[in-house]
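[job 4471] stage=fold_predict status=RUNNING
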Amino acid sequence: MTPEPITVMMVDDHPIFLEGVASALETMPGIRLAGQAGTGAEAVALHRRLQPDVTLMDLQLPDMHGSEAITAIRQETPGARVVVLTTYEGDVHAAQAIRAGAVGYMLKSAVRHELEETITTVHSGRRRILPSVACALAEQMYMSTLTPREIDVLRLAAVGNTNQKIGAQLSLSEGTVKTHMKNILGKMQARDRTHAVLLGIQRGIIGMGAGGRLPPGLRF
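[job 4471] inference complete, writing structure tokens
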């Protein structure tokens, strides 16, 4: 008797990427694409209706963060198996998704080579997390967390503000801003403020500029 195929739901707001994943799934024996959603709200409603075996979830959705959609899905279906498919490798993004209940985390660039194994692995009840993400999460356990004020300072530094301008915007003295920056560098083990900004973006602590671009003058 032929076993039932693993049903998969795909959540992403990029039609071309959806088409690519759908085409890839068609070539995988024992796996069937059950449905597609383009927003977090659609994902929650569609999951409720389809009850797929595995859900592939983008983090950057038009109406909510993917982690919020994962939380909503698992509130309704605690046993839901959700794999994050994203372009982001930042440890904060990973931590948010895993805390929300994701059992897999992989980069979109690895779909061609790892998608089938990831689906079958999580469907079997195991987790599948990128080694680089696992290492980042382990490192985060030993790294002091930035305070909300330090994140504000780092975010303003990312767009080129001087300590004086940051202080003016946050109603802080320039000396206090310098102290915050010193603490940021120490906690992030950064060489300088530019390095701290780059690390902040990589780890998902602060976002990129408009259109996903890095702030002027910063390059990886």
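[job 4471] summary: Strands lie at 6-11, 31-37, 54-57, 82-86, 104-107, 128-129.
[job 4471] exit 0
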